[in-house]
Each structure stands twice: as structure tokens, then as C-alpha cells.
Amino acid sequence: MTDDRLSMTFAALADPTRRAILARLAEGEATVKELSAPFAMSGPAISKHLRVLEQAGLISRGREAQWRPCRLEAAPLAEVAAFTADYRRFWDSSYARLDAYLQFVQDGLHQDETEEPRDER
To answer: Model-level pTM?
Structure first.
């Protein structure tokens, strides 16, 4: 995936309405009317969201008689997941180091509580 394509995918995913549309399409294909039902916005506004999703490659629109179902296209989402996998490894490693440090500090505090006070003369 080129950087431009990845940028288009992230831009499409940045909007909560578009993410909700994708979540609905993850359940199966749907018409524009079905996709617009949960939203209080005009048909042209929904169409604009669908166009952004289509340009990013996240959905496709078919033609079955007079019916134009929208379908989820998962490939760009897989590419986003691959892109973010390196960052997930970074954060997992960072959290593991933080956990180890916190355990070290906690063990040190418990050790201080069990030690006898020293006679400092």
C-alpha cells in the first residue's frame, strides 16, 4: 500500500459516521437506504461518506438489478493492521518494561517495610 493510499484509509477511518457504516457492513452488505437509517443526516451527506469510503477502497458498490448493495472491502483494513503492528510491539514492550519497573519498586518498598530499623551511631 502506498503512503497516499494509507493516508486515504486513515482519513476515511477518522470520521465516526464512516466507522459506523463500516461496522454495519461488517455484518453484511446493505443498501444506501439501510446504511443511512441510523443517522440523522441527508441522503447527499451519506452519499459523500460512502464516496470517501469507496475512494479509500474500504467499500465497493455492486449492481444487482435496481439494487446497489455496498460491501465491506477488508484489504485496506488489513494493511492498516500491518502498519500498526510495529507500534503495537513497541507499546507492548514499553508496558512490559514499565510493569517490571513497578514490580521492582513495589518489591523494594515491601523489603523496606520488613527490615529492622538500623541503629545509626
So the answer is: 0.72
